[in-house]
Write a structure and sequence with these properties.
Structural class: alpha+beta
Largest sheet: 7 strands, mixed
Order of helices and strands: EHHHEEEHEHEEH
Oligomer: single chain
Radius of gyration: 16 Å
Strand content: 25-35%
Number of helices: 6
Helix content: 25-40%
Shape: globular
Number of strands: 7
């Protein structure tokens, strides 16, 4: 396994992982009609844009064959107006790669980045029904509030969490 910063050549691999991981992670949470309409081509184009945004930090995970099996991103969301803060905007892995410590390694790399950028608070938003929220809670994310969002015509609850001590998170990830 190798974790590295994404390049434009990775957009297609990230797009595939994005679609495939959403279809497994959000099955029975997000409407099937929405998940079935996700396309590799659309997500590839989205990631071509995301990779070129100056303030985005995009990581990929490759398996031993050099195939992208996961990705993680950090960015400053437009809705985040908290000084010296940033957002963990995604960690996605193919289903067969979950539960093997890869997510922990991605989280560690993101928090090393946040520390280098001198951020003091890191926010993450996760659907209430997504079990990944327990992963974030385990590593010290504190619940802030619940918001409602609409995906595929379904209103869903999304939990907003914050980490306020980057050094403490990094210690737990050692």
């Amino acid at each position: 396994m190798k974790i590295r910063e994404a390049t434009m050549q990775d957009a297609q691999g990230i797009g595939k992982v994005h679609v495939d991981s959403w279809r497994t992670t959000y099955k029975d949470i997000i409407p099937d009609s929405f998940l079935n309409n996700l396309s590799y081509e659309q997500r590839t184009e989205l990631w071509k844009k995301n990779i070129t945004i100056k303030d985005n930090y995009v990581l990929v995970v490759e398996n031993e064959l050099g195939e992208i099996i996961g990705f993680a991103t950090a960015s400053n969301k437009e809705t985040n107006d908290v000084p010296y803060s940033s957002d963990l905007t995604s960690i996605y892995l193919l289903e067969e790669c979950q539960g093997k410590g890869i997510g922990k390694q991605l989280l560690k790399e993101l928090f090393i980045f946040f520390k280098k950028k001198n951020h003091q608070s890191i926010f993450v938003e996760v659907l209430a029904e997504n079990k990944t929220r327990y992963f974030y809670e385990y590593y010290g994310a504190e619940y802030v509030k619940t918001v409602q969002i609409n995906i595929g015509g379904k209103v869903l609850e999304e939990f907003v969490y914050v980490w306020k001590n980057i050094d403490k998170v990094l210690e737990t990830l050692e």
